[in-house]
Amino acid sequence: MKIFSSFAFAAFLFVSCNNNPKEEKPAPVSVIFDTDIGNDIDDVLALQMLFDYEKKQKVKLLGITISKSYPRVIDYIDGYCRLHGHADIPLGYAYNGVNPEPRRYVPATLDTTIDGKKLLFPQRSIADSLPEGYKLIRQLLAKAPDQSVVLVVVGPETNIARLLESGADEHSQLNGIDLVKQKVKLVSVMGGVYTNEFNFPEWNIVQDLEASKVLFAQCPVPVVASGFEIGDKFRYPAKSIGNDFEGGHANPLVMSYITYDSMPYERQTWDLTSVLYAVEPEKAWFDLSPKGMITIEADGKSSFAEGKGEQQYLIYKNNQQPVLNRLVELVTGKSTENKDQH
Predict the structure, then answer these.
(1) How far apart are the C-alpha atoms of 168 and 314, rounded to whole Å?
(2) Considering the domain boundaries, does residue 281 fall inside one?
(3) Residue 130 in contact with residue 124, Cβ under 8 Å?
(4) Which of 101, 126, 222, 237 has a Cα-to-Cα distance from 264 of 20 to 30 A?
């Protein structure tokens, strides 16, 4: 009887262990990426991060909206996405928006040939009548489950302000504020200054000042801002640009980076930090301020008032190397030597 009981108990344990459900893998984060690629180079690194997250099934990139109104940015992003297997990703554009100047790396990367071969092969351009950025966001949100989408906003807030101020259309009977409230769970935005280290209005904020005011005053869902002081702490290593990407100068990311400024330079990772928080908030790479409201003043400076509101900003945790390692790992798709410890 004792032997039988032991056998029965062992069998029970075997069945119980095999009946336990497997631990479910978290669902990918649904992201709409609003970017001003063409102004600063960190946007390209941030987009590359999102591609790496997608490969790891941590992100589902729903679409990309462009807040820089230089038409060839469409060609650049389309070609860059095609290079990484995203030929059909929806694109939207801020017509009559800000920053129409070409700057350097977008035309240089599009026009460069190496050994008679171009670096990018876009098939979409301004001639293809892309939807307005805010209209594309409305379309994507209308199709998404409730409270499922993260908006990652790393340029002027033109498209997001137009979204919030939009009315009902063919995609949804909800106005912009109600649509965002129903479908968006977080806005992760690169914008503002939230410490005493710097005393100036942040660049993204002042490019479309009225749009910035609309975002922070009217957004009905939680907003987490990565201020200038955060990305300034983490400088992308020039040696990674030189060593970690196949093709060297024939790689569009490398060509864009070396064209943006004189090498070797280590650019701040402002936009990358907003992507990192949006996808990995549970890793606590940064501390968070108390909840409250961010206000954009008439001169473009940002102020924060604790209390009523669902807005916060990121706080540096004196963990420069672990965060930088993680950013490089995500941009390159390669493990770093010194693993972060969490």
Answers:
(1) 34
(2) yes
(3) yes
(4) 101
